[in-house]
Amino acid sequence: MNYHSKKLLKLNLATWRMATMGGLLLAGLTVVAGRAFYLQGLNTDYLQGKGDAVANRNLILPAQRGQVTDRHGQLLAISTPVESLWARPGELKLTAAQQAQLARVLGMPGSELAKKMARKTRGEFSVRRPVTPEQAVRIAAMGVPGLHLRREFRRYYPAGEVAAHVVGFTNVDDLGQEGVERAYQDWLAGREGQRQIQRDRRGNTIRDLAPIKTAQLGGNLALALDLNIQYLAHRELAAAIAKHKAKGGSVVVLDAKTGEILALANQPIFNPNNRRNYKPGPMRNRAVIDTFEPGSTIKPFVAAAVLERGLYHPTSVIDTPETWRVGAKLVRDTHPHPQLTVSEIIQKSSNVGAVKLAMSLTPQQYWEVLHRSGFGELPGSGFPGETAGRLRDASTWKPVEHATMAYGYGLSVSLLQLTRAYMAFANDGEVMPLSFLKREPQEIAGERVFSPSVAREVRAMMESVTQEGGTGMRTRVPGYRVAGKTGTAHKLIDGRYSPDRYLSSFVGMAPASNPRLIIGVVIDEPSGGVYYGGSVAGPVFAQVMAASLRQLALPPDAPETATRMTQNMLPAVARAGGGV
Amino acid sequence: MSRLNVVLALLLMVCALALIQSQHRSRTYFVELERLKKQAHGLDEQWGQLQLEQSTWANPARVDTLARTRLGLIAPPNDRVRIETLTAAP
Is the pTM of this model over 0.90? Predict the structure, then answer.
């Protein structure tokens, strides 16, 4: 249409106005386009980065450390998230009333809290780690700026000191420092995962930007330990240490059939839940790490060695004078008997008899039996720092050493190692590999140390130890037949044998007809007047054994002794139950 | 020809709306999934804490002390214990 031809529609505009308007619009457009080009084209990487930084997040997926339980699933160690209270001094606005309330919630003296809060550190500091869940709720409700709660994992040991030496503990960084926590660090630890996500304005996660690297949770661990037996061992050992004013002691309970470590207690103890006040002494697992000279508990191995070579029978009679000279050394018996059978040498723990038996072997032959029984070798429990003890090569033995070796001086063992060696007698000559972990019976192969007949003969000798005339009469367990051997050894202090410091020990097994449990007990320096192994370590053995057998509900193999040994208050009932 | 174009244009509109709809649904489901994951995680933590609490209460040392002091229990002496052997029923 031609506007110019219509008179009414004719616009009388000056051309300069058209040009100005057009120019302004064009300039505006150029500015917008220029800005758009600047942002989208030149600065795009920077701005894109900024935008992503607001919406995208890299998350670390924490890997929780695995649990440790006993053989029945009772917790021994667990990691659980806890809140801890942190403060940022820069932002902190705490009124006097709030501070008083906070002190009340934390159960902390007001002055101590004030001192903490007055700190002018850069960054942040922890006020209390951890706080209890109830405290966390109350602190969060106060809503003080500059105070915040932070989530962390903390390791707890519900059994506390009872199982502390076996389970061990971790440090602040969740690294195993001792015990099972250290031995199985890699298995327990797990691995952190990672995830990149995009968030919306409200903080909801809206999508994953990269494939999720899932966190690998730490594996759980079921120990061979039986917490009930462990507690009994701990309790009886603690009572004996207090009664005999001893420096320390250990108890090991083994399953004779599987080699599993059912309990392992030491004194002194420590509390793994308290990370402060750590002293290395009480933390040491003495039963595995410390060595001692076994004393008379070695004698059954002498007996086994001579029986095995057919040199003697259990009933062979041997002259046992009060003293017997080997080189410059005078071997002495404190309770002399002119003549003893091989069995009685074990029963009455005659040094002279044991020396005469051992001297009938060559050093090489005796060494071979000790070596085969695991002395001087790592017991193979996998426990960090376990010791092999000391057994010198037979070619270096002097005759005197050959003699003292017969009653347990001149070699050193750990309690775990000694108790393991007794498994040969308990298990008809076969030693099962030790394990701190629970295992299925079918997956173990034993190692033959003695023939079944030799093992049974020695076991019968050790049973006589706990009978009338033996050194271990206080180790009896009503209702069960018990076999074992006492030991009392002078301690070696600064290269000399101390005349009045002893290690009292007892290693035994029950039910003797077919042993299920082996218990080793050693008490370090009893100073309450009695020091014989049978009187100090023996009763601990008897208490733990009786309670453990009841715990495992094993049928008695000597029911009549239950009525004979105790004053009978309900004769009819007891006798009725006795006829198994 | 032009009718076909109109039909295609409408189809395109429908597809576009469907895409928006499904994208939206995927986001809501994702948010829901995240929420439930968080809840599961929270429940896991709670389970751990309950386990810890249970094992603290059931600690043999504590049970032993309470049984002896508060309840006055003792281990039965051996003469009060009767052993029964189970024989298989014929």
Answer: no
